[in-house]
Design a protein that fits this description.
The protein is of the alpha+beta class. The chain contains 2 helices and 4 strands, in the order E-H-E-E-E-H. It is elongated, with a radius of gyration of 17 Å. The protein starts with a strand and ends in a 5-residue tail after the last helix.
């Protein structure tokens, strides 16, 4: 399995890369069907219209490619590690739902 990690408006540190690889390998260790994964991390500076103060918004996006299906998730938080954690939780739910559907529709061998 190949994991591609890209950064937009930020530098990918070894600690962030290790965190992503650890979380995603744990998440898909029971799925041997994963072809590839792309993770995009970005930092968006937004200005609040009311208070006129800026805030940093860390965004994590991922695409997981399985045979015949692509799964996409996006999460944002004030901290990049929190955004990555939210992202993996969303993808876990999608993968669990996908596995459940496969189990329901696969023929049972007798």
């Amino acid at each position: 399995m190949q994991i591609t990690i890209r950064g937009h408006h930020l530098t990918i540190t070894p600690a962030i890369e290790e965190n992503i690889r650890l979380r995603f390998t744990q998440m898909i260790k029971h799925l041997d069907q994963v072809n590839s994964m792309q993770v995009k991390l970005s930092k968006d500076h937004q200005i609040d219209k009311i208070s006129k103060k800026g805030s940093d918004n860390h965004i994590a996006e991922a695409i997981i490619r399985l045979p015949g299906i692509e799964m996409f998730a996006q999460a944002s938080a004030d901290d990049m590690y929190a955004a990555i954690k939210k992202l993996t939780e969303k993808l876990k739910r999608q993968l669990h739902k996908h596995r459940k559907m496969q189990m329901e529709y696969s023929p049972v061998l007798a």
